[in-house]
Design a protein that fits this description.
globular; five-stranded parallel β-sheet; Isoleucyl-tRNA Synthetase, domain 2
Length: 960
């Protein structure tokens, strides 16, 4: 059958929102649950990848609604930064791809024209996100609480947050070298790529610029990350095809590449670019190395990139594989030597100089590793791995050798800093900052490193704040477990983070200097607090201009009285009391869910701001990280295109099918590929689920039987397991139980002849309730079909209990299921067409031995005691013969079993009675007469002595 998913979705989301079951109202004395997902940046349309974390959040919230909790599940958007500005400029210049995307999403020409204004972009996409995505998916979000980081009331909250941080001495000001777009100013570089379109993994590298004295008083300037290797210099590399310029800096003339000079202009107070010369003009000459004073020759190298460092490179062939292979190639290239006036004597004199002693390596590790890896040319891609290996081991484990003067015997890590400081003090070196890879702003402009002389920071290195945050993190529910383990190190690693920017940005003005805009990470840490306040601003009961320090101090921190806050704000005291009461009810936040890019960006500072500003009882309780939905070739990116629009996918597959896909396809903690075929299979699964419910609804009422007790017990077991899964928010296991295991339960029930109307109705009631968190629209339709009211979304889930009765009923059917599998396998292997079958259950003494062995299964079973006890209770001679061998087999099998498998065996039932009652069913299954005996029944039909193989849970079978 084909369901009209779109009709069901529209019907039920309209009904929910008209009934306002999504609105969050505190109920004193009732449990609460407060969850958010990281609000998205407003940079364009979202895609199907984003909906994974959002949908998982909604499913968890719905589950909590159905387990006795009042829930708060607000949403908002993060418009801070340049995302909307960049989008507006693309529209303004009529960027073809941007306009095409807008048209494809149904925008009119009039709407597109309005999007030249960044604030209109924010307003437009706020509506898209809420209406086309979150409402379309039926989220139980309280829409009254929607907020956006560019709203004036939100800005008042962020201003207050900054004032609290300053009050705590956590705002500091100092010079800073920050990544900056030349047009927009400083940008944040992190995996979330909020401000940028390329280079989210780039790092700001601190280079040491070493000055090599050259002719005419000029200085050739090379950038290095390893200044301690100056003792191993043999030559200097210059790209003969690159133009180098003379840059006048602090009374010196530096020779650097033109791009390097442009970068230096952003980092130095004064620089003037004068003459220029081709790199070829420097070849064959010599320069004087800093610190050592050694004269070294200048050689050509095409690997000197003008955009990296200064475009000039010092050569240390003992420890740099690239330098060593460069010399190897130059020795072979007589033409190049002749062309640039380089003599054989100069090249022969550039012999590697041992400078570092590293365990596991000889004196010349670069030579050693290139020989080992068979690297002979600079074009060999293995050079990169060779360089990483040598640098890592040398830097972290190496010691400077005896040729390194006063630094001899020092660990390389210490020597690096010591010699750098000495050369800086003597004017032989300077500091320079560059990016590890190309970074582009969202506007398309190049991002470089720029000096900010008076940058403001939040001091996340504060030792007291770090210690308190680490201590609290130990008490939190942080998933996955790996992140729980790692967050301690992340918090320890955190240092000062720039919190404001100069330039053209959307966001909140810095209250202590209006020139600055608070940046996108700084204004998205404490924001879950504001969801408590936002609905009062949205409905007009409070106004942005009155939301001053006294207001937030009272409603959030409990400072002062409501009367004092009312006088300071002009707001009604009753409204202030209500907000204060709501905050105390809803806080702390129970779960903050976000993508894995937030593990080192958002989550640590989210936690640290809560710990810094709020009281301990309001510190967050949980963090969940979701991995990505990927496309072919990697992560889906809305900024890079190729993302399937959410409304299109919802129309094609149905919202509930997509919700089930997100919930079940894999653990939340692994990346998953979006494949249309897979998503379509979940739509098929829901249609089969619907069909099974329809089949069950029309089953006529018949006589009760043992299988009825099993189905009731099975529901109890499923419920118990589901609640256990959700204790860790394991939605995949939840969905597997509901959409894959429970249908099998119902089919088995029907196969076994179950026809009890009351049992089916109760089981269906439970099943449909369990569908509601993941596939709420189809669940509501089925709930209505069952004649239930009002909404299944607000119905409560039964608890489920694994009582001895439940376990026994489960064990009986498990015995039959396994018996059917065993017999089917025998028939398949032997090709027998059975006429008569004798089933023999294990004798009592074997059950007694199993029970005795299970009492010691977690430790070492005493074989002697086990046998002795069994012998004492055995009366039949055959049993006494079999006991030793059975004991050996039993101990061996139990040793291989998991605790769960042993737990299943520990449920003891009357197997003879259970199989005997199912005799007619088994006869129908195998098309033959079935007789059931105990293995120690002297009247059994067993001409081949099969009875001796009977074990608890595994009857023996004789087939004629």
């Amino acid at each position: 059958m084909t369901l009209d998913f779109s009709r069901l979705e529209a019907k039920w989301r309209t009904a929910w929102y008209e009934a306002r079951i999504n609105e969050s109202v505190p109920q004193p004395g009732q449990k609460k649950f407060f969850m958010i997902f990281a609000y998205p940046g407003v940079t364009g349309y979202l895609h199907v990848g984003h909906m994974r974390g959002y949908t998982v959040s909604d499913a968890i919230v719905r589950y909590k609604m159905m387990t006795g909790h009042r829930v708060l599940f607000p949403v908002g958007t993060h418009a801070t930064g340049n995302g909307a500005i960049s989008f507006a400029r693309k529209v303004e210049r009529n960027d073809p791809s941007t306009v095409q995307i807008l048209l494809a999403n149904g925008c009119t020409e009039e709407t597109i024209a309005s999007l030249k204004d960044p604030l209109k972009v924010v307003e437009f996409f706020n509506k898209v996100y809420v209406n086309d995505y979150w409402m379309r998916f039926g989220f139980m979000s309280d829409w009254r609480r929607f907020t956006c980081t560019t709203h004036p009331d939100y800005s008042r909250f962020i201003e207050w947050q900054m004032r609290k941080l300053k009050e705590l001495d956590l705002l500091i000001q100092k010079p800073y070298f920050a990544p900056a777009c030349l047009e927009h100013g400083p940008v944040a570089i992190d995996a979330s790529e909020t401000d940028i379109s390329k280079g989210g993994n780039a790092e700001v590298l601190e280079y040491t610029l070493l000055k090599f004295d050259f002719e005419d008083g000029r200085k050739l300037v090379a950038a290095t990350l390893r200044p301690e290797t100056v003792f191993g210099l043999t030559n200097f590399w210059v790209n003969p095809d690159v133009e180098y310029v003379d840059a006048e800096i602090d009374g010196e003339t530096w020779v650097v590449s033109r791009p390097a000079a442009e970068k230096l202009k952003l980092q130095r107070d004064s620089i003037a670019v004068k003459g220029a010369a081709n790199g070829a003009s420097l070849m064959g000459k010599r320069c004087k190395a800093p610190y050592t004073g050694k004269m070294i020759p200048i050689f050509p190298s095409a690997l000197c990139d003008p955009d990296v460092g200064t475009g000039l490179v010092m050569s240390v062939p003992s420890d740099a594989p690239v330098d060593w292979i460069g010399l190897v190639e130059l020795r072979k290239d007589a033409g190049a030597r002749a062309r640039y006036g380089i003599t054989d004597e100069m090249v022969d004199g550039a012999k590697p100089i041992p400078i570092i002693n590293t365990p596991g390596w000889g004196p010349l590790p670069a030579v050693e590793i290139t020989d080992k890896m068979g690297i002979t040319t600079l074009a060999d891609p293995k050079l990169e791995d060779a360089t990483k290996e040598v640098y890592k081991s040398g830097f972290h484990r190496g010691m400077m050798n005896d040729s390194c003067g006063p630094f001899s015997g020092k660990p390389v890590e210490q020597a690096k800093d010591a010699i750098r400081e000495e050369m800086l003090a003597e004017g032989q070196a300077e500091l320079f900052y560059d990016l590890s890879e190309e970074v582009l702003c969202r506007c398309g402009g190049k991002v470089l490193v720029k000096k900010i002389p008076d940058q403001w920071f939040i001091d996340y290195s504060n030792p007291v704040l770090t210690a308190r945050s680490k201590e609290h993190a130990l008490t939190m529910k942080i998933l996955p477990k790996e992140y729980y383990d790692n967050i301690q190190g992340v918090l320890e690693w955190y240092r000062e983070r720039a919190c404001v920017r100069l330039g053209n940005w959307l966001g909140t003005r810095f209250p202590f200097d209006q020139r600055w805009i608070i940046e996108a990470i700084a204004d998205s840490t404490l924001y879950p607090v504001y969801y408590v306040v936002s609905r009062y601003a949205n409905d007009g009961r409070i106004r942005a201009e009155g939301m001053n320090e006294a207001f937030f101090d009272h409603v959030i921190l409990g400072r002062g009285t409501a009367d004092e806050a009312a006088a300071a704000t002009g707001f009604d005291k009753s409204v202030l009391d209500e907000i204060r009461s709501e905050f105390e009810y809803w806080y702390p936040l129970d779960i903050n869910l976000g993508g894995k890019e937030h593990m080192t960006v958002h989550f640590p500072v989210f936690l640290m701001n809560h710990v810094a500003i709020l009281r301990p009882q309001h510190w967050p309780r949980g963090i969940m990280v979701n991995w990505y939905i990927t496309a072919t070739g990697g992560k889906i990116s809305k900024s890079k295109g190729g993302a399937q629009p959410i409304p299109d996918a919802a129309e094609r597959f149905g919202v509930d099918a997509m919700r089930l896909f997100y919930a079940h396809i894999a653990s939340l903690f692994v990346d998953v590929a979006w494949e249309d075929e897979k998503v379509g299979s979940y739509r098929d699964r829901l249609e089969r689920t619907w069909g099974l419910v329809e089949d069950l609804v029309v089953v006529g009422d018949g006589t009760t039987s043992d299988i009825d007790a099993w189905l009731a017990a099975r529901m109890e077991t499923r419920l118990a397991h589901i609640h256990e899964h959700m204790a860790d928010y394991d939605l995949r296991s939840y969905a597997n139980e509901v959409y894959f295991e429970m249908p099998s339960d119902f089919r088995w029930y029907l196969k076994r002849g179950g026809k009890s109307r009351s049992v089916i109705d109760k089981a269906l009631d439970t099943w449909v309730r369990l569908m509601a968190p993941v596939t709420p629209h189809i669940a509501e339709e089925l709930w209505e079909k069952l004649g239930r009211k009002p909404f299944v979304s607000v119905a409560q889930l039964p608890h489920g209990a694994l009582t001895s009765h439940v376990l026994a009923e489960e064990a009986k059917e498990r015995l039959l299921e396994r018996l059917i599998v065993d017999v089917s396998e025998i028939l398949k292997v032997t090709s027998i067409k059975p006429k008569r079958m004798a089933i023999m259950t294990a004798p009592r003494w074997k059950g007694d031995m199993l029970a005795a062995a299970l009492t010691h299964a977690h430790g070492k079973v005493d074989m002697s005691s086990l046998i002795k006890g069994a012998m004492a209770g055995a009366t039949a001679p055959e049993a006494k013969k079999e006991i030793p061998q059975f004991a050996k087999e039993l101990v061996s099998e139990l040793g291989r079993m998991s605790a769960e498998e042993r737990g299943v065996l520990s449920v003891r039932i009357d197997e003879l009675t259970a199989v005997s009652k199912a005799k007619d069913f088994l006869s129908g299954q195998f098309g033959c007469e079935v007789a059931v005996f105990s293995a120690d029944d002297p009247g059994r039909t067993d001409p081949k002595g099969k009875a001796r193989y009977a074990k608890p849970g595994r009857p023996a079978v004789y087939i004629e």
